Protein 1
Amino acid sequence: MFYEILQVRMDWQWALIVVLVHLAQGNEGNSVDPTPDLYEPSWVYKCEPEEGCQRSEHPQPTNSSAANSSFMVFESLDVCRTVCGPFGGLWPRPVTAVLSTQTLKMHPNLLRFALTNAPVETREMLVEMTHVITSNLFAECNGNITEMVETPVMVYISVKSPSLELTWDTDEQYLLDVQNEVDNIVVHISAETVYGARHALESFTQLIAPDRPEFSNQHQCGLRIVTGAKIRDKPVYKHRGLVLDTSRNFIPMEDIKRTIDGMAATKMNVFHWHVTDSQSFPLESRRVPQFTKYGAYSANEIYSTEEVRELIRYARIRGIRVVIEIDSPAHAGNGWQWGKEYGFGDLAVCVNARSWRHLCIEPPCGQLNPANPAMYRVLRDLYRDIAELVPQPALFHVGGDEVYLGCWNSSEEIVSYMKNKGFDTDTEGFIRLWAEFHSKALQIWDEETMAVGGQQQPVLIWSSELTQPERIQNYLDKKRYIIEVWEPLSSPLLTQLLRMGYKTISIPKDIWYLDHGFWGKTKYSNWRRMYGHVLPRDPNVLGGEVAMWSEYVDAQALDTRVWPRAAAVGERLWSDPRSGFAAAEPRLQRLRARLRARGLRPDVVSPEWCAQHDARCY
Ligand SMILES: *[C@@H]1O[C@H](CO)[C@@H](O)[C@H](O)[C@H]1NC(C)=O
Ligand SMILES: *[C@@H]1O[C@H](CO)[C@@H](O)[C@H](O)[C@H]1NC(C)=O
Ligand SMILES: *[C@@H]1O[C@H](CO)[C@@H](O)[C@H](O)[C@H]1NC(C)=O
Ligand SMILES: *[C@@H]1O[C@H](CO)[C@@H](O)[C@H](O)[C@H]1NC(C)=O
């Protein structure tokens, strides 16, 4: 029986090969050049009331279609999406928008920006912001806009505040008004801050789409702009973050910048940079060059101080604050193992220990040595370097998760330090030691911040054993620590901390972790699941983050792992719409196309047929 099946299969294979050979030969003999007219589809897209953009079943290259709004038939799916539905192709969905369904051809060369009422302090940054959006528009046609256009687009930008500070108090709201006047398009942007104006500019670019008539020349591309729009917009949450881990695997600067571009496209505003961990220390410290010498994977896997400074600037122009995290006292090993050699004693313990299971969550182990005063001196130098780099007022993340008491307990030096201090060597004693570390580290951070002219600011810290409701008030001052809660959804911790008056950032690991589904028993969250999660509306929930831990990702798959899923969280945190994923998906498809134009490689959302037939796949 098995033999027979095998035989049949083999026959099939031979049969196939024979047919293929015949085909090939046949082609050689009487080959007819297929004419493109016969074989290439020439779909058009209709915007239908409840259905969104639908590929037309009876493609008829109508001439006036793209411009013909009364008919709502488009030659380009991108243009269809930009006008179809109450929020067109906007992502994240603004709070309110009224969009015209008419479009006009436009060309970025005919874009003029006028900074009316913009304080001197903000002008330079506004100019840079306009450069970013102009180049994003060219990118929509792959840098080659072939259509000649004569309609100028005038953009008047009015910003009230001279402040360039990016904090939780930054006013990000904006008004965007687009009108079609006699023979030009006039755009008015008004915002309190440059960052609000930047968000308006981003929304403005989302009112423009590439028009590539499929049935004309494939290589032609022009842009069309919605001729009327009124958008009034502001974020629901002030903290809309993305964590990127660059320690487990190094992520080159250009890939980080591309990630920042994606965040800017989705109005996310905090790049939480988990730059170091026990695996590697790629961050250059001018005062402590040993960190990279002993901690970087290679000479090519280091972020120089200059690169970091440039990244911070790059992010600011895109309305994004860079929050550097130096995880501590756990998650610190490689980069800290040179103390003995320099006469400083052990700066960290358990570093790269062989039998790791009792000493850390994953290899390689390592925890800072809180018994060694030299460790605090080195930490101070590192903090000073960071304080000098980041603009004030700075937001810093001290890490603070997953301390393995067994690691500290395995060090005689630490245990005897504890005995001298009168700490028990039971769990609570080690918790005291852990809290003492944070209190000393915070004091050092404060001192170094003030030394560079800054002021005391709260810091971020991960939830942990230390932040349990029965302990936290003994150790962490609610004015100084914002708790980043990464417990699973089922955990009551977030609610408990809110009830106690702590400010929080929410990042439920079983739903907003982008690495889940790639290791162990973790479950992958698709964008719909990520989008479906809603945070409590409480003034002490500053916002949320989505996390790309890098154990199983590097630059090769970064974009597909992060995008467009992070954008789902971006919209949840920006406007927190009550409508479900069905209202979002066509806009997400447009966002994906936009990210691709800007050089990202976002993962696919659906079969392309579904993308061409909104609402027909759910
Ligand atoms: C479209 O219209 C232009 C002029 O308006 C005409 O030259 C052209 O032949 C028309 N094409 C089709 C496919 O009808
Ligand atoms: C739109 O299409 C309809 C039907 O083909 C046509 O009658 C009308 O003139 C067109 N309008 C414009 C502005 O081209
Ligand atoms: C731009 O597109 C035109 C028209 O298809 C083509 O002739 C030209 O070579 C392109 N230019 C570049 C720089 O790609
Ligand atoms: C630390 O080690 C001692 C001696 O082995 C043990 O009695 C104690 O329970 C340990 N403490 C913790 C928190 O594990």
Protein 2
Amino acid sequence: MTSPAPVAPPVPVGGPTLRQERRLVTAIPGPRSVELHARKSAAVARGVGITLPVYVQAAGGGVVLDVDGNTLIDFGSGIAVTGVGNAAPDVVEAVTAQVAQFTHTCFTITGYEGYVEVAELLNDLTPGEHEKRTALFNSGAEAVENAVKIARHYTGRQAVVAFDHAYHGRTNLTMALTAKSMPYKSGFGPFAPEVYRSALSYPFRDGGLPGPEAARRAISQIEKQIGASNVAALVIEPIQGEGGFIVPAPGFLEALADWSRAQGVVFIVDEVQTGFARTGALFASEHEGVVPDLIVTAKGIAGGLPLSAVTGRAEIMDSAHVGGLGGTYGGNPIACAAAVATIRSYQNDGLIERARQIETVLRRGLESLQASDARIGDVRGRGAMMAIELVDPSTAEPDPALTARVSALAHAQGVILLTCGTYGNVIRFLPPLTISDDLLLDGLAVVRDALAAS
Ligand SMILES: *Cc1c(COP(=O)(O)O)cnc(C)c1O
């Protein structure tokens, strides 16, 4: 008699059917994660850091299941990427169908419908009623670079203006556009020329300077230091992401957009982090009543598959000659299939409204913490993109050490929590839009306890 073959344990599947609760069965990180992390340290370049060294088995809804069987609350969405949730069923289905048909042609050799469909959706859904064109790329940084290329070609000018606290990526041009030296730039120069920096509106740290005045300050710098006629483009995030979730004062972006239009400067809005329902509108520009000439999107666009886009005025986008834009993988068919399913989900599954509800829950929780803890200098953000800035209560000096302690304690309790900010003193909340209120409240309670213990 032969004994029956041993049955392999089921492989956990991700998506919204994962049990939606925080549940720790080992210390964080657990032994299997520790083992994998030792392999990582021996095999992966040190510069590629890991915020929370747990290794993932499956994820979905508002949780991440690690290889030790711990379920963590996801307050990061892989940096605002999995807005529709990890392994979202519609995305899985679209990707599975596409991967079985063809995986790659290079769109600049032979075309396919998915690329065109993503372009049509973006042309239709991004702000402004003008005629638009789209080009697809792989990463946010690559799309920002292409937006700058296109603006320079269209205007015949070279100077590009970025702002304080900006983050636009890690390639050479986007490092130049990015404001913060450590860890993004230090030792990696020389940087691209003809990149200038101007002052931002940062209400918590500029005495609440009104938006139009903050814009006048920036414009005056640009006119005096560069000269409007030399400027190809302004590049700005509508809410600074890595720079600290800084929401500019009302009217700041609008005044910059108006000035750009009057001066023939291309107004490029980097919505890589703020895009796709994250802020309670499909695009954050809508909150400010701003219509970008070019809008750059990535992160939330394709449910986790690598894809990015530049969308904008037809006459600007079409100014580049045939063959001037592209790349081997840009607009990969699998990523495009994922994007079509993802963008439909934002539109049809109530996720814009859900982002607003998440704002209500997070804001209420964070403001009630602030009421009894003067170290929380500011609560800010929009939609499912909220943050607290931690300071010394007597001086409002940034407190990065406290920020690091709070996030480490939250990690140990099974909450994936990210920090940001030029001064490293901002804790940001970027949950998937599919997270439940129960998980939001449980995660907030963990942050409350972490603050109390710090
Ligand atoms: C993440 C980010 C980028 C860079 O995107 P990658 O895909 O990492 O290259 C650019 N701009 C903003 C605002 C971002 O948040």
Protein 3
Amino acid sequence: MLWIMRFSGFFSAAMVMIVLSPSLQSFHPAEAIRSSHGGDSDSNSDSDSYLRLPTSAAGKFTFRRAPVFRNAGDCRASRLGKSSVCDPSLVHVAITLDLEYLRGSIAAVHSVLQRSKCPESVFFHFLVSETSLESVVRSTFPELKFKVYYFDPERVRNLISSSVRQALEQPLNYARNYLADLLEACVNRVIYLDSDLVVVDDISKLWSTALGKKTIGAPEYCHANFTKYFTEHFWSRPAFSGVFSGRNPCYFNTGVMVIDLARWRRLGYTRRIERWMEIQKTSASRIYELGSLPPFLLVFAGQVAPIEHRWNQHGLGGDNVRGSCRDLHAGPVSLLHWSGSGKPWLRLDSKQPCPLDSLWAPFDLYGH
Ligand SMILES: *[C@@H]1O[C@H](CO)[C@@H](O)[C@H](O)[C@H]1NC(C)=O
């Protein structure tokens, strides 16, 4: 516990340093989307194999450099040059990066690369609210193809209402709503991944999932009690609950989604999600309790292309009861997801891991 307090103290200190850092002061809000190509060897001449966050965090917050992962011989050759994001042979993956989950995001990227047959054909799109994290990625994965997108928290500040779990109110949780706007227009499909998971199978299998006429694909859980995701106020108003008429809505987890961005853009789903967030804010009584999930359920539940459950073995974080551990759901496993309140890196560090946390540990690059 003491460790956690010290660590969060460090995070606040790091935040303050970043806020005060001159490089960010010269960052113009007009550059709403800032990016950089992977593969460019312009700025990082640092030969140290550890990377450091700015200033006082140096030496405390380090990641080992990941090995370089190469394509197998029969991977499709890139047609448009090394780092073009528009290359049609690429698999696109979007992940958020923030200080609190950085260790998880880095492990997730590591897992995707390690288990891919064609790791050099995976292009990462990182959504950040702290632009300094770009150098962390570049130092840890020197040859990674990636782009960093600045997500302005102001974009959702007035749309977020307080939820049952404070962690769910982080603006970056809502960045997934804006992928279609943020990512390059030539990127027509993306896999969105949460930061508390590892992929233990070739991600190109998930990438090639057929979505049919659906905009998003995700594993669906039709046995879960869908009622509980919305309030009585919601269910008692046909103006609200009527949104599900003619649909057979099932719960799905928004931590793993395959998204048809072209279709999303065409049908204006960002605005549809925002509208529900506005209703939650302005309605006489709240219509749901959780954070970014319910608006997704409102817009998409019952209209999701089903993906095999192996691609989201979720809930491994357990619930709020301290020390509670979850087991895997029956069936094969391609992705392990520590959704819930516990995180494997915290439990491993506190020497009180759950049995399945040992499956996360091999992907961890934190420390010397
Ligand atoms: C589903 O959840 C609602 C609200 O929490 C509850 O009232 C209802 O009894 C539950 N239904 C079942 C079948 O468990």
